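Let us practice reading a record.
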Amino acid sequence: MKRIIFLLLLCLAANIFMCGCCIYQVKFTHPIKCVSHRGEEFDAPEASAPAFKLAMQKKADIVKLDIQFTGDRIVVLSHDPTLTRMMNWNVKVENVTLAEIKKRKFINVGGYANEKLLTLREGLEIVKDCPEFWIDFKAFSPEIFEKTIAEFDRLKISHDRLMVATFSLPAIEYALKNYPEIRRVNHISIIQQLDNTHTGSFFPEHSRTPEDIIKHLLARRDRYKLHGFNMPVYGLRKGFLTTEMIQELRKNGVWCSVYYVHNAKAAEIRGVTSADAFVTGRISEVRPYCRRDN
């Protein structure tokens, strides 16, 4: 009888231990989400069909979709306003038709030599089962915004799975006014671009103290009713951001992601593991580090 009781107690203890481990894993092992940055961009041409397929195979939590308009007003997926870098074709996306673009191929990456630029519709057919989506308006107008949302609606992708995550404050403002149910994430930069694309998210040298930055970000959060901010890893390296700043923002209910976390070294940088998400082009490499320091 004592042996039976001992075995029962042992089984009970084992079950409690296993449940504890499960709770620990759910709570701590992978709380940091992986935002797929243009798909697995180092293994295939960025924002191409194979890049997105690889991201889905590696179970991206969020996929980032960069939005541009062609000359014939078709929504396509392209980070750059020109096709110089991806196709060695020095034209602006907005100045050529989709038919003209489809005649050309991306530069070979990872052995994928025959890939072509995707429309948003084509891209969504590949990634539609991803839990969440970042919509990054590299070109913004009310027309392109409405056409973009219509593609998600066509596939019955609910708006609670979407985030407008962009440097474009006009796009964020439009989303707030017309689609308040869609979460809004503002990309933050500390490097002013020559074309001033990041001006609204650039911090001058004199206003880079932690107190000033947090004050500025919380004021912006309140103005645009933001879900959160996407902040640069290089800011952590330069002392522009700190663990304490990210933790302070999170204590104030601000969702924080960091870009770019493409490798183990970046994932281990002090402060990164205080964030809610990694923006990455190498999901497999950074997934083991997706354990947030609470």
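A brief commentary: Confidence is low (pLDDT under 50) at residues 16-29.
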